[in-house]
Specification:
This protein is mostly helical. The chain has 2 domains: 2-49; 61-121, no CATH class. It is flat, with a radius of gyration of 22 Å. It is built from 4 helices and no strands. Keywords: Membrane, Transmembrane, Transmembrane helix. The chain crosses the membrane at residues 12-29, 35-55, 86-107.
């Protein structure tokens, strides 16, 4: 959290990020990674994800969060023998994405539109 708050003072360009990634890989290979890993990974994540923005038309993230576990359990309980584990997980991912999309379009978006209505004018 401190790294995120002070990210503007963390002067790392692409060369600095590449150096930290290389240092992390060397520490993994030669030992000592457990000591430096929390700081290195935090810096890489904060600086790496702050370099781009993602604009999506349909935000299905909440639906994925809500439906993923029940759908995975349903599919793995009933279809893993016939489809195999990779096939069952692919089916679970597909079904979860479809449910999350429908949930966004049919439930979340209408309620998000209500947020813009000013009830004081009525």
């Amino acid at each position: 959290m401190a790294l995120y708050i002070f990210q503007d003072r963390l002067a790392l360009d692409i060369k600095g990020l590449a150096f930290l990634l290389l240092l992390s890989l060397l520490l993994i290979r030669n030992g000592g990674f457990n000591i430096a890993a929390p700081a290195l990974i935090a810096i890489l994540v904060v600086k790496g994800f702050s370099t781009f923005t993602l604009n999506v038309k349909y935000d299905i993230s909440y639906g994925l969060y809500i439906y993923a576990f029940p759908v995975q359990q349903l599919i793995l309980t009933n279809f893993v023998k016939s489809l195999g584990f990779p096939g069952a997980m692919a089916l679970a991912l597909l079904l979860t994405c479809v449910l999350a999309f429908l949930s966004f379009v049919l439930v979340e978006r209408p309620f998000l539109r209500l947020k813009r209505i000013d009830i004081r004018k009525s």
